[in-house]
Amino acid sequence: MSKTTIKLKKGLNIPLKGEAEKILNTAERSGLYAIQPPDFHGIVPKMLVKEGENIKAGSPLFYDKNNEKIIFTSPVSGKFKEIIRGEKRRILEVRVKADQDDDYLDFGAADPKNLNHEDIMNKLLASGLWSTIRQRPYSVIANPDDKQKAIFVSAFDSAPLAPDFDFLIDGQEDEFQTGLDVLKKLTKGKVHLSINEKRTMRRALTHARNVEVHKFTGPHPSGNIGVQIHHIDPVNIGDIVWYVDFQNVIMLGRLFKNGIYDGRKIIALTGSEVKRPRYWRVIQGASVENLLKNNLSTEDSSSLRFISGNVLTGSKIYKEGFIGFYDSQVTVIPEGNKPEFMGWLLPKPSKYSATRTLFSWLMPWKKYRLDTNLNGGNRAFVLTGFYEKVLPMDILPMQLIKAIMINDIELMEKLGIYEVAPEDFALCEFICPSKTEMQSIIRDALDNIQKEFS
Amino acid sequence: MKAIKNIRDKIRPHFETGGRFSKFYRAWEAFDTFLFVPEKTTFKGSHIRDAIDLKRTMIYVIISLIPPLLVGIWNIGQQYYHAVGIDPTIQESFTLGLIRIIPLIIVSYAAGLATEFIFAVIHNKEVNEGFLVTGLLVVLILPPTMPLWMVAVANIFAVIVGKEIFGGTGMNVVNPALLSRSFILFGYPAYLSGEVYTYTEVQEGHQLVDGYSGATPLSLVAEGEMEAIPSDFNMFIGDMPGVIGETSFAAIMLGGLFLAITGVGSLRIMLSVFAGGIFMAGLFNVIALNEYMMIPIHKHLLLGAFAFGAVYMATDPVTSAQTGRGKYIYGFLIGVLIILIRVVNPGFPGGVMLAILLMNVFAPLIDHYVIQANIKRRMKRIKNNPVNVKENLNS
Question: Is residue B33 part of a domain?
């Protein structure tokens, strides 16, 4: 374990209502499961199954046209039902009608310590769990042929209402360690595991083997993998690092311990509009419908925003929508689609601002029920100095965004575009008085650069 | 509330696409968003947003301008009664001030607003809130004797040349209010020099006191009349001739405190301007070649527009340095320049405007060096930790 704690001062914990109580419920099995290609940024899905075909948990559903090695598999057994398409015939959902019980495809159990690099790669690619391994720069699924300098895992999430990973790992400590062992075999460099000095208590995390453990303190986004990479071993021009989400490490562990793609995971159902915010055991790709039954503040779903993920970076889903591949959280908040008389002038106590322009800074104990109103109109950059306060990286956020706006790739590189992902700018976006859509600006820039160099 | 909402719903279709007044949609939108926070919700990125927006920010700047405005109004009357040798009550001074200032403010806003709306409608973009601040600032940095047409011209100049030709609020290089003032100074110097700083349109039965001068203390000092410096107390509360908003140190500090606490104005810049001023005034005290150089440091800070410039002008976020470190340098140099111009070049006793305009121009350069430092740190990392760049990028 590294001895020093990395203390981050910049950042912001948005005090929201609706934190999940530490009670674990098991969700009724959904009839439908869906893998959603938009979760995997940048891939072009090509189907491998026909409608009505019987499939097992672990059977391939589609692959990436840009890299045929990367396949995506079904988390449950059943029948491939249909594809849901969106604009320009883009595939949004690949739906599977699930059997009552899961029948798994066997990939063969084996201790990663006794396998060589190639065996491990093959198992990951065949099972479809390669998609759990993502990379910086670009924040996309890793290319199996790349050489990376290190692999990163965060053992805590600092986002608003995020689940407590210490709670999630309960009873799965061995699988987690096996998952780390797998990652260790993938890299010549180090596997870095970041924990929260104050909140991470489990020995399985604080004393994980085969990894270098780093302690962090500080507000959100200290749990963001990008922030951690920046402070542990930053991405320079030309570097590639990989990262894996916490629960996906456990899934990797199960793949090697039991030889199957066992897509069970736990999600925190959170947000001010959930009556009983709790933890739920689900299977990858499950619908949120069963979790929300009789559990919402209002039955009028047009006045609610359903989010797979957290309020800053999650994706908007509908009431019967599916949980995202990388998400460990579902949030429900009110829509803000009502006009408000003189709303910008009157400092209402129900409003929240991270700046000191309202009274919320005088009431640090208060929790808020925030809605999706934009709270203003889109403007050019006017105010300065706010963004830096919520980005704990040696990066000039406004200057980087401006470099992107003028499409100067060389300047973007110099200002650290490879070190950031949209999620790292989520708080800058939240706080922006000019309502600049920073996450999509960063995403577009990364896409452009990736295209330029491919 | 409901009634207003109903009227709004009735009128709105006329301004939307296909409506009778759809050309004026942007004008309608400006009024509408002024009354209501629109029902616009987030559709990508973060699902929740901070309650701060530019409207609130601009209103906060206006709130912070209220103390110097109030003292300024009182001081118009105060200086008038000094000039006619009467000892006025607060109400008398204030009333006279109000009579003078209300037309100034109305003309200023009307001219600025009209220009801003015309541009918004022509370019089909949202009306920017910036003019709310500019309209008031322009009045506060002019002497009370300024003719109304001049105020209107100044404002139109500020909006068009100061902002719109660059692309509107957020795009301008120099402070629009100061730019328009410099336009008056160089184009119509008579309105800004000499005895214009006291409102002396003598009323019936009043008579100017012999030898009374409506000039600012600074310009008198520049002519060598050291005894013209008012007492510290008078400068602190703002009982001296000057432009409307600049005279009261106390009121400006109150506004500055509000800006600093809410974070709307940069405390960094304010403090660095003062630090720069103290440094330069101190340096002159040490050199002490003439009487002017020997003016005590604290009097420099109380005199002229030093405090007003530091709190309201230097902190304009668009035209000041935008990097954290850059703000320190930018502010400090403004402070140094103000005192330098004031002492060394008595031709322009009020060096504040020129110092800030000059530093506005240099702010991007200061930022450039701060950004280069950040880039250098990143490049140094590569040097310490070389990787095969080509290999990875091509794979």
Answer: no
Q: Please indicate, yes or no, if residue B340 is contained in any of the structural domains.
A: yes
Per-residue pLDDT, B349: 66
For A339, the closest of B39, B60, B323 (CB atoms) is B39
Q: Does A382 touch chain B (CB under 8 A)?
A: yes
Distance of CA A288 to the CA centre of its chain: 17
**Domain ranges within chain A, ordered by starting residue:** 5-258, 265-362, 387-453
Decide if B54 and A352 are in contact by the 8 Å CB cutoff: no
Tell me the count of A-B CB pairs closer than 8 A: 231
Q: Taking CA atoms, what residue in B is nearest to A395?
A: B374
Contacts of A416 in chain B (CB under 8 A): 378
The domain of B133 spans 57-372
The ipTM of this complex is 0.92
- Whether residue A362 lies within 8 A of chain B, CB to CB, comes out as no
Q: Mean pLDDT, to the nearest integer, of B18-39?
A: 74
Confidence check: pLDDT of A141 > 90? yes
| Mean pLDDT on A69-83 | 95
SS3 A57: strand
What residue spans of chain B are helical by DSSP H?
A: 2-15, 25-35, 54-83, 90-123, 130-140, 148-160, 176-187, 217-222, 232-237, 249-262, 267-287, 297-302, 306-308, 324-344, 352-384, 389-394
DSSP secondary structure, A84-120, as one string: EE-GGG-EEEEEEEEPSS--BPP-----GGGS-HHHH
pTM for the full model?
0.92
Residue of A nearest to B31 (CA): A342
- Residue B391: which pLDDT band, with cuts at 50, 70 and 90? very low
Give me the CATH number covering residue B365.
1.10.3430
Tell me whether residue A169 is exposed, middle or buried, using C-beta atoms within 10 angstroms of its C-beta: 0 to 12, 13 to 18, 19 or more: buried
Residue B313 DSSP label: I
Q: Which residues of B touch A356 (CB under 8 A)?
A: 261-263
* CATH code for the part of the protein at A265-362: 3.10.20
Domain count, chain B: 1
CA distance A98 to A227: 39
Q: How confident is the model at residue B389 (pLDDT cuts 50, 70, 90)?
A: very low
How far apart are the two ends of chain B, measured CA to CA in Å? Answer: 63
Average pLDDT over residues B51-73: 93
Q: What is the pLDDT of residues A382-433, one digit of tens each?
A: 888 899 999 999 999 999 999 999 999 999 999 999 999 999 999 999 999 9
Residues A271-295, mean pLDDT to the nearest whole number: 94
pLDDT at A383: 85
- Which of B29, B36, B47 to substitute to test the interface with A, most A CBs within 10 Å? B47
Distance CA B217, CA B247 (A): 11
Span between the terminal Cα atoms of chain A, in Å: 38
What order of strands is seen across the sheet that includes strand A78-85?
A32-35, A91-98, A78-85, A54-55
Among A240-254, B56-70, B183-197, whose mean pLDDT is lowest?
B183-197
Note whether B39 contacts A: Cβ–Cβ < 8 A: yes
Query: How large is the average pLDDT for residues B281-291?
Result: 91
Residue B250 lies in a domain: yes
- State whether A352 and B50 contact (CB < 8 Å): yes
| Gap between the Cα atoms of B268 and A389, Å rounded | 14
Residue B393 pLDDT > 90: no
Mutate to test the interface with A, among B2, B37, B175 (most CBs of A within 10 A): B37
